[in-house]
Amino acid sequence: MRAARYYDNRDIRIEDIETPTVEPGTVGIDVAWCGICGSDLHEYVDGPIFIPPHGQPHPISGESAPVTLGHEMSGVVYEVGEGVEDVAVGDHVVVEPYIIDEDVDTGPDSNDYHLSPNMNFIGLGGRGGGLSEKIVVQRRWVHPVDKSVPLDEAALIEPLSVGAHAVERSRAKAGDVAIVGGAGPIGLLTSAVLKGIGVTVVISELSEIRRRKAIDSGVADHAFDPREVDVVEEVRKLTDGRGADIAFECTSVQVVLDTLMDALRPRGVLTVVSIWGHKGELDMQKLVLKEIDVRGTIAYVNTHPQTIKLVEEGKINLKPFITGKIGLDDLIDKGFDTLINHNETAVKILVSPSGKGL
May I ask which residue range the UniProt record assigns to the signal sequence (predicted)? Predict the structure, then answer.
């Protein structure tokens, strides 16, 4: 089968590799769609970060570069391993793409398995990836999705779960005013979750298409271009001079982080969602004098079931955020290059590893 393989910084190759074997306790999935994530872009430009470099195998997966990329995937079950009785051939599924040590409690009451030692992600740390025609995944990490949800939209459930967990970490509540720095996929999907619980959302974003997408999709009440207006002043106008209650950093850009610090009210909450491939700086004096809470958030923890339910019930519409579909051969030129160098023209680009649906 064909797959996108990460060798090193700016070195991704489309290759033919062996089809994985379905073993007891696992599920074989024909990948329908896989999204290109900001984390994939960071690995390409700044990495390896999560990807174990060649010759330095990950302690759980035992793999190192080259590895197959892709962790935002949807697909159809083609085979189930011995002992798997609650998933059937033909089911539509998404993957919660974790690589976690077997001795870690990943049960429904756990709220910290995603923080366990050596945690990594399928599609980054090994065990296959969504940028391949097929993948075999342990049953624990496979989530059925109702067939009423189109498979292309289902591929966005993984990043939507990131947004849902970030909102949970922020302790946002109805009536709050939130400022979201960046209207890329994670910023937009975080905003969608915020709107779903009754939060007023303000977005700061350079790209006109992304600002328009935020407003037209209904996930933002206001979307400002920081080159044209003073975003901090606009937030103050909207909040009677108080400032935003919560802020979400979704860009890994220093000036955005600084803007959010200034836009927050005293005792506001700053939640850092993006993966930083470099060190950021925090104005400690502002942090102290405003008593700002700073919280990190990584991925999700038992978040997929509730996120899937939101989509199945029609409470969040994912279709508007899909702005491109490509095949595996166009991964770099029409995928990575677009999102790195022309991201003002796209939000979420999906890849069909088999070419079906294009």
Answer: none
